[in-house]
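Q: Entry one of two.
A:
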Amino acid sequence: MTDTKSTSAANPFGKLSYLVIDDFENFRVSIREMLRSCGAERIETFAKAAPAIQHCAYNHVDVVLCDFNLGEGKNGQHVLEELRHKKLLKRSSIFLMVTAETSKEMVMGAREYQPDAYLTKPINRSVLKKRLDSLIRQRNALLPINREIDLENYPEAISLCLKYLPTQPRYKTWLLKTLADLYFQVGDFSHALKIYDDVLGQRDLSWARLGKGRIQVATENYPEAISNLSDLVEKHPDYMEAYDLLAEALERKGQPTQAQKILEKAADLSPNALLRHKQLANLATSNQDLPTASDAWRQTVTLGTHSIHDSSDHYLQLGSSLSDLSEGDTSTDGQGWASEALAILRRMERRFPEEENVKLRSRVVQSRVHAGQGSLKEANKALESVKDELATIENLDPELGLDYAKTLFRLDEHDEAKQLLGKLAHRCENDPSLLQKIENLLDEPVGFQQKLKARSLNRNGIKAFEDGNLDEAIRIFSEALSIVPDHAALNLNLTQVLIKKYQGSEDQSLIRDAQKHIARLDSLPEQHRQYRRLVSLRQKLKGMSA
């Protein structure tokens, strides 16, 4: 009788399943023969990404050898990205990226999804066997730990790491890193931090620095996290995870502009990382940097063509960003952005025809693009094509509702826009993020450049008031309100200045002006942050005019 255990130990290749993905048949045949000569038995080969991914959905694969360049469609990075995203690879599975291309851009992009190794073409049996033999031996030695992690049985995985540390010195670094990650996962930051500090006390390793940074961010120790991670990216400029964490720390500390700069640098270094471009786009949008936001959304859309992370929302955000950028700008640049916005929105409709609300959201934004270029006939035509359908939806999707209201404001249908936002605020009163967006739109239902001007005037008006220059404050707030006449804070700010001036002069015309500004806010929803202030000033005015 044959001893199965000794056979598998003598031939570690034999008990594993293999998947070879390459668009050249000769290479697939060559790799299969090399694997067989090493003792492999279960080998599947595919020329394209889609059937290979489908195979992984129904079959466990231990070793994947995937070429980076697979011709038309998905490449090796997309394959690895999708397998990781769908959790079709177990932690014990081995993924080798095979490539004839060694550009930094390719390596950085693929590395974001952590292949176990790279193999550079041409490949011979000796190189393949040596590389796989080392990876398979490590896989087999650490298999029990990875099984428990796959099952999310973290306490047992921690126990096994502690058990293996004295008996598997060859894999000490892997065990320490995994153990610290597991402690972090279960919220035991003190044990995780001790591992990182012990490792860093002996050697400055990037993964330990990053791990310490994760704990510093998780415990809201942002100054130390920023200092630690800034040093890490300076010493190891290709360590992309450190940029992401540093940007997160800066944003949480209230430094969004600096966070954006870090993400811009990271996106330049590793230009094929879709999710980072998306993060940059969102951050630049919140920073009101529309050119950077548009560029980042454009990259997100382009990279999404063959990616599992492709989304209609990316197209919509790009269209909206370009719409804001082109608002009121009829120069060559403005017309170009508007044309690009319309093209990307039409492309979204074709690409995601079955997706709910895609056509509705596309036409709503298209209407706004046309209006921003002064083409009101085209704007009304785009909106009319979906207006009846929008009216039949009882509980409008909140984001679609916001977009619709924004377009109604742009077409001077203010009462309908306010009514829509009032209903939306009432229905979503427990969603602070959405309420903030509703407030912003109610206050500033105008184009991007006008918003910036109004906000600048508001700041100047507050400063004039604080300096005691009431006439100047009244002039500045009045100018700002000529841009955004229904802005709650501006109307209340001006009311407050008028009351202050009245108390020094008892000029009744000041009270009448204040009452007009209070009356402008009669339709302000109770959920608005300025509502209590409105009630208070309204009562104060009543007492003064009695």
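Q: Entry two of two.
A:
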Amino acid sequence: MTSTLRTGLLRIEGAADPAAGCLPILRGLPARTADDAGATDPEMRRNLGYGRPHTLLPYTRQDRYDRSRTTRELPTVVLENEHLTATFLPGYGGRLWSLVHRPSGRELLHRNPVLQPANLALRDAWIAGGVEWNLGTTGHWPLTCEPLHAVRTTTADGTPVLRMYEFERLRRLVLQIDAWLPAGSPVLYVHVCVQNPNDAEVPVYWWSNIAVPETGQTRVVGPADHAFHFDYTADLRHVPFPEYDGADRSYPGRLPRAADYFLDIPDAERRWITALDGTGAGLVQASTDRLRGRKLFHWGTATGGAHWQEWLSGPDAPYLEIQAGLARTQLEHLPMPAGESWSWVEAYGLLEVDPAAAHGDWGTARSAAAAALATLVPPGRLEDALSRVAEFGEPTELLGEGSGWGALEIAAGALPASAARPFGDAQAEQRPWAELLATGRLPLCDPPAAPVTGGHWRERLEAAEPDWHVLHQLALVYLSEGEDDAARTAWKRSVAERPTPWALRALAFLTEAPEESADLLAHAVRLRPDLLELTVEFLDALAAAGRHRQALAVVEGLTGSARRHGRIRLAEARAAHALGDQDRVRRLLAEGIQVDNMREGEDSLDTLWLAVHPGTPVPPVYDFRMSQT
């Protein structure tokens, strides 16, 4: 059989694609220090304290979705040879959705039976399953539920290659992913290239998140005897692996609490990780040396972890994740010099190990898995594949269209054009900025144009006529660069030109006075009472200011779907609890509060239940706790 590439459709029960809101994400990620993060050496100490973004601009939230599912048809690109069938979803961050071992018919990945967004990513919406590519900063990347550009190309010998690429706007990096399945190959090859086109160093983060099925017999094996442990209750700890605190951590399906284990792989070891079932078979991932880190994540068997599994994948579909990253842990960023590109090759396939060895003592399991990998993918083969990527041909067929942001940056002179990655033309979302490039004038837009960041946009905005819209956009650029005072001044000038909910909301974010923040958001909501995401922020601000009666009045003034929204009902219950009306809280909980975008690690519902039902176990529907035993 020859290697083939084809397009197709995935039929799946799924919610509608998550939609982006119009409120930019003004917050960033909190800084970490060596003291509070468990650094073990100077390199990790530097990486832990480096590169956490001041904001998540220019992105907006992607929180408009629900849990109503219908039969969906999603465009796919499929690579196939006689050993493997690999199915990709270009429309969902290029995710590798399925990898089937054809001779046995075995699915090697956790192929989610449903498509259900949930609030686990930097922008909110995320889906579980397959292999997710993560570029940017700690967390699931901003494009995880967005389309990538996808084209067909070929290797030097004519093997078809799926190339996906996009301009990632938080870090202003270009990402390219090439996947191919040579005839006769037992593994899928994936080449990743991250390019920094900027004239300054950029903090870089990458993790390939690989979801695989989990049972009580699943054992995760890798070339390490220690790990960095993180369990949502404490900072990183350097611990023995797998035996730690009286339990074998390589069997995640037997452990009650959610946890991360970042394997501390010695420099001389080959980079790989595998999840083997009771028969000693399962998916293995290996890479060239640049992809240094490996991680095990599991949800745990307690009620909260089990609820999360069902929340993401429906009943009876448990999974765990084995992951691979540039740094040793996901709390680190690496400095990438200006103009540099980093590339590596990953391999995915079925590893088969004698079950007695796979489930024997740790040294035996490690050695047996490493030997099986050496047979499957001999040492040096991935390095050879990486050396041949430069010989790939230019694209010959368009398979999927991403955003117009790369095309806009090329037009602005901030990104070099490349025949290997045709970005097409700017689209409707970029039209206001294309007009600024062409005329020096940014058209008035309400809601405002989608934000941009970067020094070249700052220069153009500072040279434009300073109406309320220009000043608002300029303030966003200042904030993205950590210039809070300049941003505050620009937003105040914008409000003086014309009071808008956009600038008022931003000023509320920048103030440290809860009362002032609530007043500013009250003004913003009066201007846009129909904008639910703004109303939710206003209710949070009223709670922070202790203005619970006002919060209830706001809730009671809502109607229709807004009144029934999970976040609104939760805000009502929390305000009632703060005012001592526990009967109202109990009634709301009895009726049901479903928060479709419950945040990973959020304890609002279980805390509320225990507050009004002391001593009564939290019902599974309200239990999202990741740290209980």
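A: Comment on entry two: The chain has two domains: 4-65+78-391, 511-622. The radius of gyration is 25 Å.
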